[in-house]
Each structure stands twice: as structure tokens, then as C-alpha cells.
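Narrative of activities, Objective 1.

The group set out to show that a structural description can be obtained from nothing but a protein's sequence at a throughput compatible with the screening campaign. Below is one input-output pair from the validation batch, recorded exactly as produced.
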Amino acid sequence: MNKVVIKEFEKKHLGIDIMLYVMFIVLGFALLNFPFIDEFNPTEYAPQLFYMLAFFSLLAYFLNRREDDYEKLIFGFINVCVGTFVLVYAFYPETGFILADAVLIYSIAIVVNKGYYCKKLLEERNLNFFSKTAVTILLLVLGVFVVSSIYNKVEASSMILGYYFIVYGLLSLLEPFMEILINGGKVKKTLFNFLSYDEKEEEKESKSKSAKKEDKKESEEKVEHKIKEVKKSKPTVKSKAEGKSNKNKTTKKENKESKKSNE
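Output recorded for this entry:
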């Protein structure tokens, strides 16, 4: 068995991520198990939930800051924006549709945020790309299912929101655990070979492109060289023609002079 060695900084990073995603599960269970929740309209307590998640996500960002990594910061702003959206439209008659719209915006924003960092990890040849991409796809499927459920069953929106938070937290917990698994011996080698294979293909393509560019440059240089040779040869032809015309003129003058002398 190959032991997975995790650095202290990575332990802190994974621990803070786990605590953040556990908060989703706790809030989901609170929505399902507290009976007095049903007495309130979902739009009355949903903003407080999103603001709470925004606080914990921003706290996770500042405790776990990395260079050029603003995923948690953007995630916090997404929670603030969605909570404000629900708060502004809380007095709209169709409250169930407001919550469904909020979850729709929330899911799209999260997928875009995570998708951007998936692309970034792929460009960096980081093995965590695989775990983040898998979780992003699962969260996209979850968002589609929950939004359609809330639109169809408005009266059960609080229960659906509770299940959404629980499943969201569980799926998000897969990411840090998959990162630990990926850093293992065999899995790390196979994934690294996959990424290095892509690098080799890109190197071949770049080499072929550079070779084509060099061939074009050489052909252009040859054409320019021929044009210069042609331009150089033109004055000699002109000088020869001018010499012939001068000879003809002199011979004509001599003939005229000889005629005059004879006369």
C-alpha cells in the first residue's frame, strides 16, 4: 500500500473546505428536522441562509488564501447576490417561483465559477482538475433536478431546499477526498501520464506548425531573392540597348559627314 503524503498547508486547505461543506449539510438537516420552519414562508428565511453561507465561504477564503485562487471569494459573493435577490423579491405573490429562480441563478453561477477554475487547473496541468470537474458536473445535474422540482412542487420548496443543501454538501465533500485519493501512487501516475500524453500531442502540433511557418518563410525569401535578381538584371539590359542605340546614332552621323564631304 502506498501512503498518501499530505503537506501541512494542504491539510489546512482540505480541513477548511470540509468544514465549509459540512455547514451545508447542517443547514439542510435544520430545514428538514425543525418543525417550526413550515410556519414561515421560504423567502423569509432563505436570505439569512445564503448570507450565512456567504460568511463561512468568505471566512474560508481569508483563512485559506492561495495565489491566484479566488474561487471561495467569488462563491461568497454569489451567496450574497442570491440572498439579496430573494430579499428584494420576498413580497412577490409567487414566492415558490422566486425561490426556484434563486436556486437557478445560484446553480448557474456556481457551475460557471467552478468551470473557470477547472479550465485553469487544466492549463496548469494540475491533477486536481479531475476531482473539480467531476464535482462540477454532479452539481450541475443536482441544480437542474432541484430547480425543476421546485417549479413543479412549490408547496414543498422548503423541504426541497433542505435536501438540496444536504446533497450539495455531500457532493462537495467528494472534492477534498478525491484530491487525497488522486495524490496516491498508482492513481497519480496514471493521471499524470494522461496529462503528459496531452502535452506530447500539443508539442507535436506546435512543432508541425513551426515547421510550416519556417517553410513559408524560406519560400518567401526565395521569391524575394529572385525578384531582386530580376531587378538587378534590368539595368544591364537597358545599358546594352542604350549602347546599341548610341552606336547606331554615331554610324548615322558618320554616314552623313561622308556624304557631305563627297559632295
